[in-house]
Amino acid sequence: MNQNSIAVNIAMMKIARPPQTLHSLGLGSCIGVAIYDPGIKIGGLLHALLPRIGEFGSGGHSRAKFADSGIEDLVELLVAKGARRNRLRAKIAGGAAMFALKSGSSIGDIGKRNVQSSIETLQRLGIELVAQDTGGNKGRTIIFNVDTGELTIKMIDRAVKVI
């Protein structure tokens, strides 16, 4: 990463403007959700651990820990900083199956559930999902260029991919 790159750790979200970039290291079953407004070149990145806040009872939880509430909050933050909701675009990465557990385990499919929750939340909010790199069984590092909207994905044993 370079000096203009801001780390977005687990259960966090951050926004940036060029020349800054945003990055998350080691997305396994977690989901990285990059949302940006190409019109004013502002973007944000969420690094969510779990799919839905409602599944974990009330109180004390960071909303950025969850894909659904984290996406909602990221959209509101971007709009508060001048983004137009109708121009927002999203890209997602992560949601790998990192644990070899017996079939039917809710922990084993957490990555898939994170992806599903992210897609459903984006649809509900009317935000176009323009690209995704999800699933598999390996972790990812992602770098989000808010100037271009490009999401660079790095994985072990795989060529760098830009979506």
What does this structure look like?
- The protein has two helices and ten strands; from the N terminus they run E-E-E-E-E-H-E-H-E-E-E-E.
- The protein starts with a strand and ends with a strand.
- The relative contact order is 0.21.
- It is globular and about 40 Å long.
- Strand 9 and strand 10 form a beta hairpin.
- With 163 residues, it is of the alpha+beta class.
- Helix 1 packs parallel to helix 2.
- It has a single domain, classed as 60s Ribosomal Protein L30, Chain: A.
- The strands form two sheets. It has a five-stranded mixed sheet, with no helix packed on it.
Describe the main β-sheet briefly.
5 strands, mixed
Q: Specify Rg, calculated over alpha carbons.
A: 15 Å
The proportion of strand residues reads 35-45%
* Secondary structural class: alpha+beta
Question: What is the helical fraction, as a range of percent?
Answer: 10-25%
How does CATH name the architecture?
2-Layer Sandwich
* CATH top level class name: Alpha Beta
Short description:
The protein has 163 residues and is an alpha+beta fold.
